[in-house]
């Protein structure tokens, strides 16, 4: 008799809980977007409706290129012509001085900013926005983390950064030097073939430079008497954070 009572009590308990009103609501499918390159951005052209997130799909449609896993910005290749880098004095004309001409890889422009620059030119000197002052007149204050080195390779062959070679300016020391020859007979300055200037920018991105000429319009006809200190160079800039290849 007790056994029957216990069974009846159990059936009553099950009935009470099963008759509650807490049943799961019906499924309402939503749209999901394919993420073929696993960059957490979805392709608006490839969709699926489901109640729960399917594998390989995300809830946004922000991807402009679903074959690019990092959604990378394009590498910049450009040429700068006739960047003027004047200097007061020098070459037997008194003490060297004068402002440096500053260049920013991110914008591809000469700049007068005190902070938004990567490299700076005055005559044959090239400074970095990183490290410490060399100790010359009128050099700009360093407030970035730029570094650099001179690669003993042709421009086209420099496809990645050798991070262990990067260095910064320091007292009486230029990170970038030995990139040109000087002819004491003609007084001409020429970039050394097979040397490439490699840079880490102030923001930690990378660039490489091939100096083509030190003369206005690449013209050496007057032995550089009137048209020296005008840089023409090719450069490649890698705008993507953490990528050290071109």
Can you describe this structure?
The chain has 246 residues and is mainly beta. It has two domains: 26-68, no CATH class; 76-238, no CATH class. The protein is built from one helix and 14 strands; from the N terminus they run H-E-E-E-E-E-E-E-E-E-E-E-E-E-E. A five-stranded antiparallel beta sheet has the order 4-14-13-12-9, with no helix packed on it. The protein has a four-stranded antiparallel beta sheet with strand order 6-5-7-8, with no helix packed on it. Strands 2-1-3 form a three-stranded antiparallel beta sheet, with no helix packed on it. Strand 1 and strand 2 (43-50) form a beta hairpin. The longest helix is centred in the N-terminal third of the chain and has 17 residues, at 2-18. It is elongated, with a radius of gyration of 32 Å. The N and C termini lie far apart (87 Å).
């Amino acid at each position: 008799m007790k056994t029957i009572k216990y069974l009846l009590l159990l059936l009553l308990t099950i009935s009470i809980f099963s008759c509650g009103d807490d049943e799961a609501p019906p499924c309402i499918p939503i749209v999901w977007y394919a993420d073929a390159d696993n960059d957490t951005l979805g392709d608006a052209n490839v969709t699926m409706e489901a109640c729960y997130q399917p594998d390989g799909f995300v809830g946004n449609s922000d991807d402009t290129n679903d074959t690019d896993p990092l959604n990378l910005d394009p590498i910049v290749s450009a040429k700068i012509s006739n960047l003027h880098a004047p200097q007061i004095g020098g070459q037997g004309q008194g003490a060297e001085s004068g402002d440096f001409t500053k260049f920013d890889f991110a914008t591809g422009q000469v700049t007068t900013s005190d902070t938004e620059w990567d490299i700076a030119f005055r005559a044959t000197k090239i400074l970095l926005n990183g490290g410490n002052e060399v100790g010359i007149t009128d050099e700009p204050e360093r407030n970035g983390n730029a570094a650099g080195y001179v690669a003993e390779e042709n421009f086209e062959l420099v496809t990645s950064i050798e991070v262990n070679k990067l260095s910064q300016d320091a007292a009486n020391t230029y990170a970038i030097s030995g990139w040109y020859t000087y002819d004491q007979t003609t007084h001409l300055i020429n970039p050394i073939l097979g040397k490439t200037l490699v840079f880490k920018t102030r923001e930690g991105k990378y660039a490489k430079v091939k100096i083509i000429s030190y003369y206005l319009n690449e013209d050496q006809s007057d032995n550089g008497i009137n048209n020296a200190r005008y840089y023409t160079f090719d450069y490649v800039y890698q705008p993507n954070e953490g990528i050290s290849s071109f």
